[in-house]
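sry for the spam today, last one i promise. C-alpha coordinates for design, 174 residues
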Protein backbone atom coordinates (compact mmCIF):
# COMPACT_ATOMS: atom_id res chain seq x y z
CA UNK A 1 0.00 0.00 0.00
CA UNK A 2 2.88 2.36 0.81
CA UNK A 3 4.39 1.73 -2.62
CA UNK A 4 1.03 2.35 -4.33
CA UNK A 5 0.92 5.80 -2.71
CA UNK A 6 4.64 6.50 -3.18
CA UNK A 7 5.23 6.64 0.56
CA UNK A 8 8.32 5.35 2.32
CA UNK A 9 8.11 2.92 5.20
CA UNK A 10 10.00 3.05 8.51
CA UNK A 11 10.61 -0.32 10.12
CA UNK A 12 10.76 0.37 13.84
CA UNK A 13 11.86 -2.48 16.11
CA UNK A 14 13.37 -4.31 13.16
CA UNK A 15 15.04 -6.76 15.54
CA UNK A 16 11.71 -7.54 17.25
CA UNK A 17 12.51 -5.54 20.33
CA UNK A 18 15.78 -7.40 20.83
CA UNK A 19 14.25 -10.85 20.34
CA UNK A 20 16.15 -11.42 17.09
CA UNK A 21 19.79 -11.79 17.98
CA UNK A 22 20.88 -12.58 14.42
CA UNK A 23 21.04 -9.02 13.07
CA UNK A 24 22.63 -10.23 9.85
CA UNK A 25 19.52 -12.13 8.85
CA UNK A 26 17.16 -9.33 9.86
CA UNK A 27 19.13 -6.67 7.99
CA UNK A 28 19.55 -8.82 4.89
CA UNK A 29 15.80 -9.36 4.84
CA UNK A 30 15.08 -5.65 5.05
CA UNK A 31 17.73 -4.81 2.45
CA UNK A 32 15.57 -6.71 -0.05
CA UNK A 33 12.92 -3.99 0.41
CA UNK A 34 14.24 -0.85 -1.33
CA UNK A 35 11.75 1.60 0.15
CA UNK A 36 12.10 0.60 3.80
CA UNK A 37 14.24 2.53 6.28
CA UNK A 38 15.31 0.70 9.43
CA UNK A 39 15.41 1.99 12.99
CA UNK A 40 17.22 -0.88 14.71
CA UNK A 41 17.64 0.53 18.21
CA UNK A 42 21.40 0.40 18.68
CA UNK A 43 22.73 0.18 22.23
CA UNK A 44 26.46 -0.44 21.77
CA UNK A 45 29.19 0.70 19.39
CA UNK A 46 29.84 -2.97 18.61
CA UNK A 47 26.30 -3.19 17.15
CA UNK A 48 27.00 -0.29 14.78
CA UNK A 49 30.17 -2.02 13.59
CA UNK A 50 28.24 -5.25 13.02
CA UNK A 51 25.60 -3.40 10.99
CA UNK A 52 28.25 -1.71 8.85
CA UNK A 53 29.82 -5.12 8.11
CA UNK A 54 26.42 -6.47 7.10
CA UNK A 55 25.71 -3.50 4.84
CA UNK A 56 29.12 -3.82 3.18
CA UNK A 57 28.67 -7.57 2.65
CA UNK A 58 26.56 -9.59 0.22
CA UNK A 59 22.86 -8.70 0.32
CA UNK A 60 21.50 -11.90 -1.18
CA UNK A 61 19.80 -14.21 1.30
CA UNK A 62 21.15 -17.75 1.19
CA UNK A 63 19.01 -20.88 1.51
CA UNK A 64 20.51 -21.49 4.96
CA UNK A 65 19.53 -17.96 6.01
CA UNK A 66 16.01 -18.48 4.62
CA UNK A 67 15.65 -21.61 6.77
CA UNK A 68 16.92 -19.70 9.81
CA UNK A 69 14.40 -16.90 9.12
CA UNK A 70 11.61 -19.44 9.06
CA UNK A 71 12.84 -20.99 12.31
CA UNK A 72 12.94 -17.55 13.96
CA UNK A 73 9.42 -16.72 12.73
CA UNK A 74 8.08 -19.93 14.22
CA UNK A 75 9.95 -19.43 17.49
CA UNK A 76 8.82 -15.82 17.91
CA UNK A 77 5.25 -16.21 16.75
CA UNK A 78 3.20 -13.04 16.90
CA UNK A 79 2.47 -12.75 20.62
CA UNK A 80 5.50 -10.91 21.94
CA UNK A 81 6.16 -7.39 23.13
CA UNK A 82 8.30 -5.22 20.88
CA UNK A 83 9.12 -2.92 23.84
CA UNK A 84 7.89 0.21 22.09
CA UNK A 85 6.13 1.32 25.31
CA UNK A 86 3.17 2.82 23.45
CA UNK A 87 1.07 0.93 26.03
CA UNK A 88 2.28 3.32 28.73
CA UNK A 89 1.45 4.99 31.01
CA UNK A 90 -0.16 2.25 33.07
CA UNK A 91 -2.79 3.40 35.56
CA UNK A 92 -1.33 0.90 38.08
CA UNK A 93 2.23 2.09 37.26
CA UNK A 94 3.26 -1.35 35.99
CA UNK A 95 6.27 -1.29 33.63
CA UNK A 96 4.38 -3.33 31.05
CA UNK A 97 7.12 -3.95 28.50
CA UNK A 98 9.42 -5.16 31.26
CA UNK A 99 6.77 -7.56 32.55
CA UNK A 100 6.06 -8.79 29.02
CA UNK A 101 9.76 -9.51 28.59
CA UNK A 102 9.41 -12.33 31.13
CA UNK A 103 9.71 -15.27 28.67
CA UNK A 104 13.12 -14.00 27.55
CA UNK A 105 14.24 -13.04 31.05
CA UNK A 106 13.50 -16.42 32.61
CA UNK A 107 15.83 -17.99 30.04
CA UNK A 108 18.64 -15.42 30.22
CA UNK A 109 18.70 -14.49 33.93
CA UNK A 110 19.94 -16.56 36.84
CA UNK A 111 17.37 -17.41 39.53
CA UNK A 112 19.39 -15.35 42.00
CA UNK A 113 18.91 -12.18 39.95
CA UNK A 114 15.45 -12.96 38.55
CA UNK A 115 13.87 -13.50 41.96
CA UNK A 116 15.40 -10.54 43.78
CA UNK A 117 15.66 -6.76 43.63
CA UNK A 118 14.12 -4.97 40.65
CA UNK A 119 12.68 -8.15 39.11
CA UNK A 120 10.97 -9.14 42.35
CA UNK A 121 9.40 -5.72 42.88
CA UNK A 122 8.32 -5.40 39.25
CA UNK A 123 6.63 -8.78 39.05
CA UNK A 124 5.12 -8.23 42.49
CA UNK A 125 3.66 -4.97 41.20
CA UNK A 126 2.20 -6.70 38.14
CA UNK A 127 -0.28 -8.42 40.45
CA UNK A 128 -1.89 -5.00 40.97
CA UNK A 129 -3.12 -4.82 37.36
CA UNK A 130 -6.65 -3.40 37.38
CA UNK A 131 -7.50 -4.94 33.98
CA UNK A 132 -8.58 -1.49 32.75
CA UNK A 133 -7.50 -2.30 29.18
CA UNK A 134 -6.07 1.13 28.36
CA UNK A 135 -2.74 -0.48 27.49
CA UNK A 136 -4.36 -2.79 24.96
CA UNK A 137 -6.10 0.14 23.27
CA UNK A 138 -2.70 1.81 22.75
CA UNK A 139 -0.72 -1.29 21.67
CA UNK A 140 0.07 -1.01 17.94
CA UNK A 141 0.59 -4.78 17.79
CA UNK A 142 -2.82 -5.68 19.22
CA UNK A 143 -1.35 -7.75 22.04
CA UNK A 144 -3.64 -9.18 24.74
CA UNK A 145 -1.62 -7.31 27.38
CA UNK A 146 -3.99 -7.92 30.31
CA UNK A 147 -3.88 -11.67 29.67
CA UNK A 148 -0.10 -11.67 29.20
CA UNK A 149 0.59 -9.64 32.36
CA UNK A 150 -1.60 -12.00 34.38
CA UNK A 151 -0.03 -15.12 32.82
CA UNK A 152 3.56 -13.96 33.31
CA UNK A 153 2.96 -12.69 36.84
CA UNK A 154 1.42 -16.06 37.81
CA UNK A 155 4.24 -18.00 36.14
CA UNK A 156 6.84 -15.81 37.86
CA UNK A 157 5.26 -16.35 41.28
CA UNK A 158 4.89 -20.11 40.71
CA UNK A 159 8.53 -20.55 39.69
CA UNK A 160 9.64 -18.29 42.55
CA UNK A 161 7.73 -20.41 45.09
CA UNK A 162 9.15 -23.63 43.61
CA UNK A 163 12.71 -22.34 43.87
CA UNK A 164 12.11 -21.08 47.41
CA UNK A 165 10.81 -24.51 48.44
CA UNK A 166 13.83 -26.23 46.90
CA UNK A 167 16.21 -23.91 48.70
CA UNK A 168 14.42 -24.54 51.99
CA UNK A 169 14.59 -28.31 51.43
CA UNK A 170 18.29 -28.07 50.58
CA UNK A 171 18.97 -26.19 53.84
CA UNK A 172 17.03 -28.75 55.89
CA UNK A 173 18.97 -31.73 54.55
CA UNK A 174 21.99 -32.80 56.63
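last one done:
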Amino acid sequence: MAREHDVGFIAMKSLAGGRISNAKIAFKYFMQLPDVVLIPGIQKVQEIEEIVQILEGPRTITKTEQKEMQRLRQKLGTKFCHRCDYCQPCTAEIPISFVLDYPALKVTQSPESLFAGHFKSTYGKSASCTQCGECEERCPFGLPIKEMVEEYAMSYQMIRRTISRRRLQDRQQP
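The two ends are 69 Å apart (CA to CA). ok im logging off now
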